[in-house]
Specification:
Distance between the termini of chain A: 42 Å
Number of strands of chain A: 9
Oligomer: heterotrimer
Distance between the termini of chain B: 17 Å
Chains: A mainly beta (180), B alpha/beta (350), C mainly beta (143)
CATH architecture of one domain in chain B: 3-Layer(aba) Sandwich
CATH superfamily of one domain in chain B: Thiolase/Chalcone synthase
Shape of chain A: globular
Shape of chain B: globular
Helix content of chain A: 10-25%
CATH topology of one domain in chain B: Peroxisomal Thiolase, Chain A, domain 1
Structural class of chain A: mainly beta
Strand order of the largest sheet of chain A: 7-6-5-8-9
């Protein structure tokens, strides 16, 4: 289609919405701990499941959780599911090279950390069950900048990626209900 | 047509800024509504929620919100990108099938993280209105001037609405803007969007509300004095503000008539007038006289948690019926801009 | 001192306009304003694809204006970056001569005292049209 014809048929409109939000008190504590080198979540007093970060409630039991229910989890875990994303150019896209998008189930947690990078291993060797440990930024480079109230949690701007520990794979039965 | 009643309810106090996330506001609210209805969440037959992700800018925020209802074991649920009053409409329709007895409804919104003027412009015609950044306060200002030009109201009338709202809100622990003000003092304030002043506008609010519905004898089992929904209807007008009469609300009149409002006595009326001139327009549309008990809660001028405001009006009427303070009430909810879309709910004690 | 996260959500839309809105925008480029005439001879402005009251397709485009009347208005003291003007202005319902309904648009009157219901206005055109409603940059009091 010629540019002139396209121009008459299309109207351009960039919608731009600004947001400014204080972190919830639970996420404040979560970020404080992260910067201090610890990963914390909430353990449900009813079913015992641990959600990282804590949500202030257990989504399975719908009971409230508070600071009293805070527990620490390990910075080691298992890749339960993953994909390699080939970036497509679109407005706002910053990635240019294929990148890893993995769910990591930290030891002691029942919820996964999503969208994690896995380094130190070729992409085609990444697999579910892979044992990994967090790659922490040096303390002076850590910040809570990338953690927001949205979504289901993040460790970005403190933990950049996960790398293989070299341990044997986790038994599938132990993580098959925690894929996503 | 099945008889459906409000048997449980709860709301958060509306505040300018809630530190909790939207779902964290909803979890205790839903729990309290269920407790009041003497129901376990697993007994609920259908869940419907009203909310808008654009208020907090969180994609799939409405999915997170569902955790307040508990989606395990799996539940039958729906969502509307509208005020919770429309979520209640859907739940009420669902209950008419007669195969389930109870429904859970909730509405919520945190406007504090965003610029409401920017977000609201996105609901407007994408060709003729949104690119101009037409905001809801400007449209309300245009509507207010039209009302003045038509000789239907004065700025003093607007201020009197605000004074009544704040005064009534003093007795409402959930209201945000409350107190006793004088009409003259308010009229001395500068315009924000002439002819509207700050007191003519709603506050920016964060809040949540939940309602439990039950059908027939189940409602009588769960609640001593259920608030029966005798009629529920909603009507929408043309989108373009320049193609409607902004000084009247024919859709409210029609919705009320279809909901069974016959002009008879009403003990309590709660109207979703987010701008003071709109209360005058709605009073006229419903044929209410000067002595009518309008917005004893303070109304939307006292608290405006967007997507919850209309459902809160229903709760304010229902709880007065349940307590025996009222026998017959009307609750109104609105959507779109400047009263484009209006819902009327008639509630009655047995 | 709690942490605050800021973010911007952006949606870069390229919207197809269709024959009616497209004709309206093409008209703006040529400094013409068009409305759509319905079955009862009523001219809807801005032009819509369907009669909002009957649902009938509208195909009859007629030129309206260029002069118009302000039907109602409000004053915007502190415009935001999303508004069409960066100085105080009026948002108004503006009804061009020959049209039976009004559009919402900005009136660059300079001062709130220059605004009144019933005042007469004329269009101001954007120098470089970009196929958008604000190719009609705003309305201004008649010279």
């Amino acid at each position: 289609m010629s540019d002139a014809k396209k121009e008459t048929l299309v109207m351009e409109h960039l919608v731009s919405l600004r947001y400014e939000e204080e972190l919830t008190p639970i996420l404040e504590r979560y970020v404080d701990a992260l910067i201090d080198g610890r990963i914390v979540g909430h353990k449900c007093p009813q079913c015992g499941r641990v959600f990282v970060p804590g949500k202030g409630y257990c989504p399975m039991c719908v009971v409230e959780t508070t600071e009293r229910d805070e527990v620490e989890v390990a910075d080691t875990g298992t890749v339960t599911g993953f994909t390699i994303i080939t970036p497509v150019a679109y407005y706002g896209q910053e990635e240019t090279e294929p990148f890893v998008y993995a769910s990591v189930l930290l030891d002691g947690a029942d919820s996964t950390l999503g969208g994690q990078d896995v380094v130190g291993i070729p992409h085609d060797q990444i697999h579910s069950g892979l044992r990994v440990r967090a790659v922490w930024r040096p303390k002076e480079k850590r910040s809570g900048n990338a953690v927001t109230n949205r979504g289901w949690g993040s460790v970005a701007s403190v933990i950049d990626a996960f790398e293989p520990t070299g341990e044997p794979d986790m038994d599938r039965a132990k993580f098959e209900e925690h894929i996503f | 047509m099945s008889d459906v009643a409000v048997v449980g309810w709860a709301q958060t106090p509306s505040v300018r800024l809630a530190r909790e996330s939207e779902v964290q506001l909803l979890v205790p609210t839903v729990a309290q509504a269920l407790a009041r209805a003497n129901l376990d969440r697993r007994e609920i037959g259908f869940t419907c929620a009203g909310s808008c992700d654009y208020l907090t800018g969180g994609p799939f925020a409405f999915v997170s919100n569902l955790e307040a209802a508990g989606a395990w074991p799996p539940i039958a649920e729906s969502h509307v990108e509208m005020d919770g009053a429309w979520a209640m409409y859907e739940a009420w329709v669902r209950l008419q099938h007669g195969d389930i007895d109870t429904a859970l409804v909730f509405g919520s919104g945190k406007s504090s993280p965003s610029q409401p003027a920017e977000v609201w412009a996105q609901q407007l015609d994408p060709y003729y209105l949104a690119p101009l950044g037409v905001d809801p306060v400007s449209l309300a200002g245009i509507q207010a001037r039209a009302l003045l030009d038509a000789g239907k109201a004065t700025e003093r009338d607007f201020a009197e609405v605000a004074v009544r709202s704040r005064h009534n809100a003093v007795d409402n622990p959930n209201a945000q803007v409350k107190g006793d003000a004088s009409v003259d003092a308010l009229l001395a304030e500068p315009y924000v969007r002439a002819p509207l002043r700050k007191h003519d506008l709603p506050p920016i609010s964060d809040g949540a509300v939940a309602v439990v519905l039950a059908r027939g004898d189940r409602a009588r089992q769960l609640c001593e004095r259920p608030a029966w929904i005798r009629g529920l209807d909603h009507r929408i007008e043309v989108h373009q503000p320049g193609m409607r009469d902004l000084t009247a609300s024919p859709s409210t009149t029609l919705a009320a008539r279809k909901a069974g409002y016959d002009g008879g006595p009403l003990d309590v009326i709660e109207l979703s007038a987010t701008f003071s001139p709109q209360e005058l327009i709605l009073r006229e549309a419903l044929g209410l006289d000067a002595g009518a008990n309008v917005n004893p809660s303070g109304g939307a001028l006292a608290a405006n948690p967007v997507m919850a405001t209309g459902l809160i009006r229903i709760v304010e009427v229902a709880q007065r019926i349940a307590s025996g303070a009222a026998d017959r009430g009307l609750a109104h909810a609105t959507g779109g801009q400047v009263l484009q879309h209006n819902l009327v709910c008639m509630l009655e004690g047995e | 001192m709690s942490r605050v996260t800021t973010s911007t959500l952006e949606f870069p839309y390229s919207r197809t306009v269709g024959p009616i809105v497209g004709a309206f925008l093409a008209g703006l480029r040529e400094h013409r304003i068009v409305g759509a005439r319905g079955a009862d001879r009523k001219v809807f402005f801005p032009p819509l694809e369907y009669d909002p009251n009957t649902g009938e397709a509208l195909t009859d485009l007629v030129e309206v204006g260029p002069q118009a009347t302000v039907v109602s208005w409000t004053w915007v003291d502190e415009p935001t970056s999303k508004h069409p003007l960066d100085r105080p202005f009026a948002f108004a319902l503006v009804q061009p001569d020959g049209a039976d309904t009004a559009m919402v648009h900005a009136v660059d009157a300079g001062n709130i005292d220059a605004m009144s219901t019933g005042m007469r206005v004329q269009p101001r055109w954007r120098d470089e049209p970009r196929n958008r409603i604000d190719d009609l940059a705003c309305w201004e009091p008649l010279a």
